[in-house]
Amino acid sequence: MKENENIIKTRKAVMIGCGFVGSASVFALMNSGVFSELVLVDVDQKRAEGEAMDIGHGLPFASPMKIYAGTYDDVKGAMVVIITAGANQKPGETRLDLVHKNVAIFHSIIPEITSREFDGILLVVSNPVDILTYTALKLSGYPANRVIGSGTVLDTARLKYEVGHHLGVDSRSVHAFIIGEHGDSELAVWSSATVAGLPLNDFCELRGHFSHEEATERIFENVKNSAYEIIERKQATYYGIAMAVRRICEAIVRNEESILPVSSYIDGEYGISGVVLSMPAILGAGGVEKVIPISLSKEEKERLEKSAETLKEIIRDI
To answer: What mean pLDDT value characterizes the chain?
Structure first.
């Protein structure tokens, strides 16, 4: 217990990978003030040093903390190790196209972590996040609750943003989830979506919108394709996912027991097992406490099963 208490006092996070996503995430975490120590690790040491210097120069405008470039030895005592390292998704390339390149990279990263004294949370952000979270889980041998992926936290934020924009309301008042794969087979759970406690369709009619099927289909397509749209325009996405990483870390460090749709190992929920995908889960200092079996329509359940099977096919291939 004393060792764990010391870990909590240090509030250290290690970012492995200092590309666009890693650096933007460190910047978001610096502004959150949730950690007292942020360590940047990259195969390009000079890149890690440069990013640490650049971000660190903003500390006079933020909370006191240490930000520096380090090595895998700094994993010791960390509360959270975040992995963003991997090949980038190129225009026209799906997240699943990245699988073989990034699985190979994880075969070099995960043993470096497990060979150090680390009993915190391993947060995978690299894509395809569900497959790589599964890979990290199997390679590390850590308990399933401690190995999570950023999952559909960002997709869900995009959904709330689109619905809020459609209805002209604060997106924080929208309660809905994207679940399944973080990718093309993901699905929106419209059946249980609410705004200010009202069922989504009722609230839509309150705001003068009656073409529910047309609107939800359009909104979901915007959400599902948004990453591709951004990549086509600027070659990468990083600000949105950086904010998602910040939110996940806040829930862990503060032991919030917040419900977020992170990627985690599914073992029996909806009859699905042996795969990592996103479902709403209670998230706290120990990682995933419990996956929440939210209410799904028959069609949504079938689509979730199909999404799980898509991921299982990839797992069998690797």
So the answer is: 93
